[in-house]
Write a structure and sequence with these properties.
There is one protein chain. This protein is of the alpha/beta class and about 325 residues long. The chain has 9 helices and 10 strands. The protein has a 6-stranded mixed beta sheet with strand order 4-1-5-10-6-9, sandwiched between helices.
């Protein structure tokens, strides 16, 4: 129960739990700092999974986002209806609107590339997307269809919407923003081309946006970081450290803005996952991360992913993390 501190005797008031937590959060890495703040501000199962595992080392998985071993549910399919709520590029704009042009602001002169995971046309072009491309460590499918919720809301719809919202927010900060695609092509681009777009742009930061397709009960978000890879055409040695910094800042801010907790099935509660099998990371020469915003096969997570208000918060968390990284 709260009380009115104005009636306390004339002495130093005790520090609140939130004040102490904020002080502690300033001393720890981004993702866990965000988790501490989420706990102190009353984090609950409405915004993320309860009973988070203890903080531990990041896990290393071995499959493309949204196609991990153990994923359940029907093969994703194109939705015949519109998204559950109107997609937007900003507060209340139609999809495809460019938003404000880069201008003066804290991110003026900086370039950010946003990679919306998958393409809604991939379903109709399985031959093309199944073609193998070189990702340095091995050869892998050009792209995948992505996952979907049980109602048919697809990952590609989700990522397009959030990417447009994020672009608008970053442009308001003065950044030059490029998307790898805007559902303006029949399929793809392939994972190697997605990496090359960021490289050719000389991006200061790249984020690839996804939603997972794991088993029901697996909840929360996680940010995927590049592992140290030196194989074939892949060399991540120069981007591992800055990409981790970028990922930690995004994770911490994502917790703060969305109220969602880090994944309860990957990353040991840190919200961070290191992988060496993703072409989009292996072939990048600029700081880059993936984010899995939630699990589309879990009823509680999909309720968030299909909420326009929550998607705006998700975009804000990513924007704040990117801005923090670029202004460090």
């Amino acid at each position: 129960m709260s009380y009115d501190e104005s009636h306390l005797p004339a002495r130093r008031r005790p520090l609140s739990r939130l004040t102490l937590t904020l002080a502690a959060a300033a001393l720890v890495p981004g993702a866990f700092a965000g988790w501490l703040i989420w706990q102190a501000t009353g984090g609950s199962d409405d915004g993320g999974p309860a009973g988070l595992p203890a903080q531990g080392a990041s896990a290393v998985a071995s499959a493309e986002p949204s196609q991990r071993p153990g994923s359940s549910g029907p093969e994703p399919r194109p939705s015949a209806s519109k998204s559950p709520s109107k997609p937007a590029s900003g507060d209340d704009a139609a999809p495809g609107e460019a938003g404000p042009a880069p201008g003066d602001g804290p991110l003026a002169g900086r370039t950010v590339v946003i990679d919306p995971g998958h393409n809604p046309g991939n379903f109709k072009h399985t031959t093309e997307i199944n073609k193998l491309v070189d990702i340095g460590t091995n050869r892998k499918e050009c792209d995948t269809t992505g996952t979907s919720g049980n109602s048919g809301y697809t990952e590609a719809e989700f990522t397009a919407d959030v990417s447009q919202r994020l672009r608008t927010l970053l442009r308001k900060e003065g950044a030059t923003v490029k998307l790898t695609h805007e559902n303006d092509r029949a399929w793809g681009p392939c994972v190697d081309e997605r990496a090359e777009i960021g490289n050719k742009a000389g991006a200061d930061a790249v984020i690839s946006i996804h939603a997972d397709g794991s088993a029901a009960g697996n909840r929360g978000f996680h940010v995927i970081l590049p592992a140290l890879v030196k194989s074939g055409g892949a060399d991540t040695s120069k981007i591992v450290a800055p990409s981790r910094d970028l990922g930690e800042r995004i994770a911490g801010n994502f917790v703060r803005t969305t109220g969602s907790a880090p994944s309860n099935y990957l990353g040991g509660g840190t919200g961070l996952d290191v992988r060496d099998d993703l072409g989009g990371l292996n072939l990048s020469t600029v700081p880059k991360v993936f984010i899995e915003c939630g699990n589309m096969r879990d009823t509680k997570d999909i309720a968030l992913l299909t909420s326009a208000d929550w998607r705006q918060k998700a975009a804000q968390g990513m924007a704040d993390g990117i801005s923090s990284f670029l202004n460090r």
